[in-house]
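To the wet lab folks,

You asked to see what we're planning to order before we commit. Fair enough. Below is the target structure as tokens, and below that is the sequence we designed to fit it. If anything looks off to you, flag it before the synthesis order goes out.
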């Protein structure tokens, strides 16, 4: 098989399973390196192995692919990785409103994420890197975000649209961690709590209601902040008056995110039921930090389907034209 295709498939499978980002990145780097090598170097094992960016594991994959074999490591991953989850709702999803690039804490550049979204058949994909307060994630200052916006929109074309957005931090007083005027220039604004997750219920409720009442906010991201599995360990859900928060979301036309990352499963099933009862809209999002994680939408689709969320109330099933009208 094609060595580049083999390397990239391995990277995507590792990303989908949320393996170490460094492992997946090594295979993407090897694919980029191999693509740029002269033909004579590609065919010379000694010089190929010596190329910067080609390691022992990636070299073995390349050589097996060149020999017309499916690389052993790829076969192993194909066997270990769980197949995409069957769902009648998943094919109805037209896009994804929450994903990150290497401008903040994602692993790959904007064009790579755009290409992966296209390959999945998305009609649209939002790039929503973090806001400045989240320094550990290299959150974007106003200057960096202004620089990013045209680069994001430049990836649109041929029936696919890359939307300029942000995952903006909800600060402790409910204000948003970015200039209002700049938020108004974006296509999509996802607002999420990332700090002081254990504050008292009344304060957290007021904080979240203030954020979803902001006219620029479109989506309330991973509302409880919980972690139920994975390499980062577990974390309990934040405490807040869900009925009050979801009532504010419904009143302001803000979609409640069904986050597709298996380690989050956020909101929990009981809160999805409350949001349904409150009349909320929903957005099934991948929260992808790498190209292979965009396919995690199947997890979110399965949870939404199991909870009885109608496709008509999921904004990511809507056409781009309708989505834009709602977001504006």
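Sequence we intend to order:
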């Amino acid at each position: 098989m094609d060595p580049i295709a083999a390397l990239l498939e391995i990277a995507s499978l590792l990303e989908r399973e949320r393996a170490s980002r460094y492992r997946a990145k090594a295979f993407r780097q090897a694919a980029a390196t191999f693509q740029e090598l002269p033909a004579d170097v590609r065919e010379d094992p000694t010089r190929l192995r010596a190329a910067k960016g080609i390691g022992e594991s990636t070299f073995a994959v390349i050589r097996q692919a060149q020999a017309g074999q499916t690389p052993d490591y790829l076969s192993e991953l194909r066997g270990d990785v769980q197949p995409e989850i069957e769902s009648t709702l998943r094919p109805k999803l037209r896009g994804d409103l929450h994903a990150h690039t290497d401008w903040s804490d994602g692993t790959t550049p904007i064009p790579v994420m755009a290409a992966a979204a296209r390959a999945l058949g998305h009609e649209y994909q939002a790039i929503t890197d973090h806001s400045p307060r989240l320094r550990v994630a290299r959150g974007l200052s106003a200057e960096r975000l202004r620089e990013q916006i045209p680069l994001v929109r430049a990836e649109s074309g041929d029936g696919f649209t890359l939307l300029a957005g942000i995952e903006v931090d909800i600060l402790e007083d409910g204000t948003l961690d970015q200039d209002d005027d700049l938020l108004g220039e974006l296509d999509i604004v996802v607002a999420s709590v990332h700090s002081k997750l254990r504050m008292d219920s009344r304060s957290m409720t007021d904080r979240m209601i203030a954020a979803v009442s902001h006219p620029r906010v479109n989506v309330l991201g991973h509302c409880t902040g919980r972690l139920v599995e994975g390499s980062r360990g577990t974390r309990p859900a934040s405490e807040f008056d869900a009925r009050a928060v979801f009532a504010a979301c419904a009143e302001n036309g803000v979609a409640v995110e069904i986050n597709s990352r298996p380690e989050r499963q956020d909101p929990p099933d009981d809160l999805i039921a409350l949001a349904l009862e409150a009349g909320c809209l929903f957005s099934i999002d991948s929260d992808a930090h790498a190209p292979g994680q965009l396919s995690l939408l199947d997890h979110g689709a399965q949870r939404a389907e199991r909870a009885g969320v109608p496709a008509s109330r999921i904004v990511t099933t809507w056409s781009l034209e309708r989505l834009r009208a709602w977001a504006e």
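Structural context that might help your review: The chain has a mean pLDDT of 96. The domain at 90-327 is CATH 3.20.20.140 (TIM Barrel).

Thanks,
Computational group
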